[in-house]
Amino acid sequence: HGLDSQIVVVGCGISGIGAALKLAKHGFRNVRILEATGRSGGRIKTGRMGNNIIEIGANWIHGPSEANPVFCLSRQYGLLDPESLTAENQSLDIGGHPPWLPNWFSSSGRKLTVEQMGPAMELFGELLEEGSEFSHKGGEPYNSVGEFLRIKMRQRVAERWQGDSLPCQSLRLSMLNTLLKVECCVNGTHTMDALGLGGYGLYKTLPGLDCTFPKGYEGLINNLMKELPTGIVSYHHPVSCVHWQREARKAERVHPVTVECAHGERIPADHVIITVPLGYLKKYHGTLFSPPLPLHKLHSVQRMGFGTNNKIFVEFDKPWWDEDCDVVYLVWEDESDLVDQVADVERLWFKKLFGFSVLKPTERYGHVLCGWIAGHESEFMETLSELEVKHSMTNLIRKFTGNPTITPRRILRSQWFHDPWTCGSYTYTGIGTCVQDIHNLAQPLPLNGEQPLQVLFAGEATHPSFFSTVHGALLTGWREADRLISHYSTPSTHQPTRS
Ligand code: 6YU
């Protein structure tokens, strides 16, 4: 009977929890989640720095409005501030870039003015929009989003600001350089040169002004976990291999899949839902599946990108930024070449940090900034001691403010690349990727035959337009649960005729 089938979910992040909960609510009696670590939530991870709650992983609900299931659930659980719930907030269409009030500081210790930075930001926004149109126009006239942006920026800077002095033009180019580093963080990529122009624009935004969880993103996980039947999660159970059958015959009471755990346990199953991050899949696909993944799926795993974006929280006794400031940008005056990669990573990794977002409200957080750094520079930062990172942050802030006495109280950083079960931060569309790659990632194994749907795939990387987000991940978990639900509610699929 369908509802008795053995279903194993690999990974207890939001997509795994979403899948298991939907199956359990539908009446499936034998659902089990195997999780490698000792906790639920995966890349949703709330931590503490002193008395402050901070998000080590996901930060915002992107596009909190009716079409966003994370918003709807969080509202239902009472996890959001009243302000986030207003109709006005829900209807704001910010296109993925919140209207943050910036402060700009330059490497010569100057604070830059609105007149200096406004035109650079405008130009950059314009080009991002143009760059995202290639996915539906077809054709990729440039090798990457980075190349497209660089060529267009140089052209337009020359056209628009030709009358301005050379130092002024150079400063504008340096600002654009900083904005390239911002985009590396947004997209979770080492360089914009690794982003494919054809895939850029697949990502879709929802209306709503991005909001945070006053008591932490993990509140959402805790509420969902309370709804799951007790005892269905096995923690510290890393799955090492999923043995499936390419051409399995239907046989009574024989489960086609065996899930092998790292410490030797072998669990028979009818269906396995894989929710491990794409970074993990890229590294371990060769041993995680037996027989191996079909070639078209493997190639899509390789083409899709998975990069690193880390946070460095820094706490101060008092602010050195304006009271209304939401984000601090750092502009290196020696970087007007529009290159978003640091040449000498070990010595100068901190030049990749684009700046800081301000944790608000101040009454809740005190004076805490969140630094953002993507790419190999970010991965190198993870290998340094906390003291070394604190030292670099102190020097950086002293240089940009021109104030040699500023001393952070403490710092705390994320280390997503070296997290053995994540291997990076989130998915981006690499060079040569298109929506078919995401469909390939999501395609179950085998698709047809007497024992179809032995291995199913969920997780943020498998959502065709909301990859890299929590709502994307949740929707993929529900999608795979629905796939099994409809499989068992179509009589012909679970009672194959024997020849
Ligand atoms: C969002 C945001 N956000 C910042 C940072 C990060 C991410 N995201 P999980 O990894 O959660 O679960 C898998 C589980 O599997 C896990 O528990 C493992 O331990 C386990 N596992 C692995 N191997 C196993 C094995 N062998 N056996 C058993 N178990 C195993 N999303 O909505 N808002 O603000 C951010 C951010 C630093 C790291 C984010 C954000 C991404 C989400 O966190 C992420 O998608 C989901 O949590 C993933 O859930 P899951 O279930 O799939 O995997 C314009 C444009 C372009 C496009 N991009 C722009 C969008 C911006 C992206 N936003 C990111 C921004 C931040 C700041």
**Percent of residues in helices:** 25-40%
Based on DSSP secondary structure assignment, what is the total number of beta strands?
20
Radius of gyration, CA atoms, in whole angstroms = 24 Å
Ranges where pLDDT stays below 50 over 5 or more residues in a row are 494-499
Q: Approximately what portion of the residues adopt beta-strand conformation?
A: 15-25%
Helix tally equals: 18
Structural class: alpha/beta
What is the global morphology?
Answer: globular
Q: Could you report the average pLDDT, rounded to the nearest whole number?
A: 94
Largest sheet: 7 strands, mixed
Q: Multimeric state of these chains?
A: single chain
Ligand roster = FAD-MDL72527 adduct
How far is the N terminus from the C terminus? 21 Å
Which strands sit side by side, in order, in the main sheet? 6-5-15-16-17-14-18
How would you describe this protein?
The chain has 499 residues and is α/β, with parallel strands linked by helices. Helix content is 37%, strand content 17%. It is built from 18 helices and 20 strands. Strand 3 and strand 4 form a beta hairpin. Helix 11 packs across helix 16. It is globular. The C terminus is likely disordered. Bound molecules: FAD-MDL72527 adduct (6YU). The site of FAD-MDL72527 adduct (6YU) has 43 residues, from helix 1, helix 8, strand 14 and helix 17.
